[in-house]
Specification:
The protein has 199 residues and is α+β, with helices and mostly antiparallel strands. The chain is built from 5 helices and 7 strands; from the N terminus they run ββαβββββαααα. Strands 1-3-5-6-7 form a 5-stranded mixed β-barrel. Strand 5 and strand 6 form a beta hairpin. Helix 2 packs across helix 3.
Length: 199
Amino acid sequence: MNEIPLLPLKTVLLPANTLGLKIFEPRYLDMIAACLRENSPFGVVLIHRGEETAIDTDIYSIGTTATINDWEHRADGLLGITALGVERFEILSTSTRGDGLALAKIKILEDDDCNEIPDQFHYMLDLLEHMSAQEGRIRGDNQGFCEILYQLIYLLPLETALKQRLLEIPECGDRAVILHAELIRLGVIQYIKPETPHG
């Protein structure tokens, strides 16, 4: 059982994706400094009720561990960091330091090893490649099905509550089924035409 500091936000960080953040509160400046010094992770969790600057926020119990991919002292005096989502976790218990920083004892939730994309969801890879090209994102090769799903969830205009729900689902296949239904609702799938065999 690990204990990590928490950064409650009004957005969802997904594994295999990055999130740009501006840090200005002393408790989080100290947290980032410690994480950089010790090369240790912190946890990003979605706020269910409350504000990011509050101490007594109501948070979801499933979040994503993050490492600091990059950082800079911004011209506006704030600390800018790029957080990289690593693994899903479940909060087992929490405590609060004197400076207001929340700490959590967590259990890592490992994704099922599913590298092969099921035939009915192969269009999701084509959709991701199309969206990545539009966003100017360089997509890594040899990504597993779970990573493909996480990146699609990140890029699609989904409501934050749905992104959290998808993060909480333990199985890749079940996550794909719900995402597939949402793509139908958004009208995305009808624009993806299967290749017609010639001959």
